[in-house]
Automatic annotation (TrEMBL):
Protein name in the entry: Ankyrin repeat family protein
Naturally occurring in which organism (per UniProt): Actinidia rufa
TM region(s), chain numbering: 462-481, 501-526
The organism's taxonomic lineage, starting at the top: Eukaryota, Viridiplantae, Streptophyta, Embryophyta, Tracheophyta
Keyword Transcription regulation: no
Any one Pfam family match given in the protein's UniProt record, by short name: Ank_2
Keywords: ANK repeat, Membrane, Repeat, Transmembrane, Transmembrane helix
Length: 623
């Protein structure tokens, strides 16, 4: 095998010398025949790339490329300088094209004879190394860096270090940036070519030994470094390798520019990488994102429970009372986002939870204020149950949490009303001074007139469904399964009246009828515009209801007729009577909820009639 390897090596070197000799002859002949043309091309813009030579570059065979190069130079009487100054529409050189296709031998040939192309950039600011790294061609990347070590242009640019001591030229290529601020390592990370990333990190370590900046921590225009991208993609081995560079250079957390990798680990919910980062470099806990948020703020914001537990166990003394740019503590962020478990955990880790609940942001808002502003009923309910909470605290606008909740619009959502109810049930007071809250980008504007057209189709659909349910359940009450007895003493009664499952059927049917009729009447009021202003606060007086229309009156009386007739078909109707009583009590509760309205006498009378009629079961209604 040793002799065979030696023969292959000798054959390769012989072919290389032959190609080099051919190109040298072409250089001498082109310089002698086109001396004036070369001078003019230096100052002119780059001309379009020759199609035949472009195809030869894409093909990638070196001998074919040289033959085509000789042919183009001879036929068009162009110097090699002029030819290699040509570019595509995107300003890609021949070296860019060869690198994009991974033709490492052709790349080496061009880079050796025309080293200035190593640092040339296309329209996007990409060097050939960027192109090769993005495509994931490891051998091509290695070839470019190897030939860059002997590049005269790189040697001149790197004159601040003696090249006999260290090969510093690759540092120039490794740190070169395109228009997006990306280095070749960025491009390799964005497309994650694992072996290529490992190679570039090793090269980064090599050039960093001679005082150069670590490429792994150079941020692009988005503020993302290759280290951040490695954390974001969850590549633990790469993160560990880059972290060794950070430790080896003796960097502090203040020297880590751009977006925080700790926040990236939290947002991707990667506990392993989070532990790796903070375990080896605990000072990284002091990193903040563009909004001034600490890692605990970030974890509390996205509801990452495991991350919050970890940070509290390791860094509770630092994290709990750190504020972001808005003056938010982590408990403010968790309350605003509605994460109940995290709020409770933060209160447990603070020595005096009551003090933490009184902490205010830059606008004087406590955690309870923020939870109310963003309509988080679970958080509000949880906080109001805390014995240490102070419900009467006011913000800079002089508003308590209840004042904020009562600023909701007329067509408030169910979640908003639940928030208001939680405060009311806890006995939250109103402030002495009531101002309109400041407009916040995160809080929807209040008191805007509702757009009724948004609800029209939904109301019509629900009304149709509730009407169908009411019709079916009403008919089911008089077409009992099993039929009726035709002989005494139970003539006309349901044959299955004594069966438990039959009685369950009647009970469920009665409940369904009550529910569907209540929904139907409510939706009719909603269409007339009255429901939204009255019924959502509480059921209004029946004097108004009975004067609405004949259709409304029929729908109110219909369930009472059902409960009067259905029990008469059964010999034992105690269960049905209980169901009727339950339905009547439900209506009565709605009336009580509307007690602020005084016109309820007639509706109470209707409820009493329904109860008495259903209990008698004789089909007679007395005034």
């Amino acid at each position: 095998m040793g002799r065979l390897d030696l023969k292959v090596r000798m054959a390769y070197e012989q072919r290389w010398m032959e190609r080099h000799t051919r190109l040298e002859k072409l250089v001498r002949s082109s310089n002698s025949s086109t001396s004036t043309e070369g001078n003019t091309s230096a100052s002119a813009n780059k001309k379009p790339m020759d199609l035949a030579l472009y195809k030869a570059t894409v093909h990638g065979e070196v001998d074919h490329f040289i033959e085509t190069l000789v042919q183009v130079s001879t036929e068009r009487e162009l110097s090699l300088t002029t030819i290699f100054d040509q570019a595509t529409l995107l300003q890609n050189s021949y070296l860019h094209v060869a690198a994009s296709f991974g033709h490492e031998k052709l790349v080496g040939f061009i880079a050796y004879h025309f080293p200035s192309l190593l640092t040339s950039k296309n329209m996007k600011g990409d060097t050939p190394l960027h192109v090769a790294a993005r495509a994931g061609h490891l051998n091509t990347v290695a070839t470019l860096i190897r030939f860059a070590e002997d590049s005269p242009s790189c040697a001149t640019s790197a004159s601040y270090v003696v090249r006999e001591i260290a090969d510093v030229c690759p540092d120039i290529l490794l740190r070169s940036r395109n228009n997006g601020g990306n280095t070749p390592l960025h491009e390799a990370m964005l497309n994650y070519h694992e072996y290529l990333v490992d190679y570039l990190v090793r090269m980064d370590r090599k050039v960093s030994l001679f005082g150069n900046n670590v490429v792994s921590y150079c941020e692009n225009k988005e503020g993302k470094s290759p280290f951040y991208l490695a954390v974001e993609s969850g590549k633990k081995a790469t993160v560990e390798s880059m972290l060794q560079l950070f430790i080896g250079k003796g960097y502090s957390y203040e020297e880590m520019k751009g977006k925080s990798p700790v926040h990236a680990a939290i947002r991707t919910r990667n506990k392993g990488i989070l532990d790796l980062l903070l375990g080896k470099v605990p000072t990284l806990i002091q990193l903040r994102n563009e909004d001034g948020e600490t890692p605990l703020h970030c974890a509390a914001s996205i509801g990452y429970n495991e991350g919050v537990w970890y940070l509290l166990e390791k860094f509770s003394e630092f994290c709990l009372l750190e504020r972001d740019d808005n003056g938010f503590l982590p408990i403010h962020t968790a309350s605003e986002r509605g994460h109940v478990d995290i709020v409770q955990k933060l209160l447990q880790y603070y020595p005096d939870g009551g003090e933490l609940l009184t902490k205010e942001d830059d606008h004087g808002n406590t955690a309870l204020h923020l939870a109310t502003m963003h309509w988080r009923p679970k958080i509000v309910s949880s906080l109001t149950w805390e014995k240490r909470i102070k419900l009467g605290l006011v913000n800079d606008d002089g508003m308590t949490a209840l004042d904020v909740a009562e600023g909701m619009e007329m067509m408030a959502s169910f979640r908003k009303r639940l928030t208001w109810m939680a405060l009311i049930s806890a006995g939250a007071p109103q402030g002495k001074i009531s101002k309109a809250p400041k407009v916040n980008a995160q809080i929807p504007l209040q008191h805007e007139p509702p757009n009724m057209e948004n609800y029209k189709d939904r109301i019509n659909t629900l009304l149709l469904v509730s009407t169908l349910v009411a019709t079916v359940t009403y008919a089911a009450g008089f077409t009992m399964p099993g039929g009726y007895n035709s002989s005494n003493p139970d003539q006309g009664m349901a044959t299955m009246a004594s069966k438990p499952y039959f009685q369950m059927f009647v009970i469920c049917d009665t409940i369904a009828l009550y529910s569907s009729m209540i929904v139907a009447v409510s939706l009719i009021w909603a269409q007339l515009g009255w429901f939204l202003s009255q019924f959502m606060i509480g059921l209004c007086g029946s004097e108004f209801i009975m004067r609405k229309s004949k259709a409304d009156t029929n729908e109110i009386v219909l369930p009472f007729d059902f409960c009067r007739g259905a029990p008469s078909l059964m010999t034992s109707f105690n269960n049905c009577t209980l169901t009727t009583a339950f339905g009547s009590i439900f209506l009565l509760l709605e009336v009580v909820a509307a007690s602020r309205h005084h016109e309820i006498h007639d509706l109470l009378l209707l409820v009493a009639i329904a109860t008495a009629t259903s209990s008698s079961g004789d089909g007679v209604v007395t005034q």
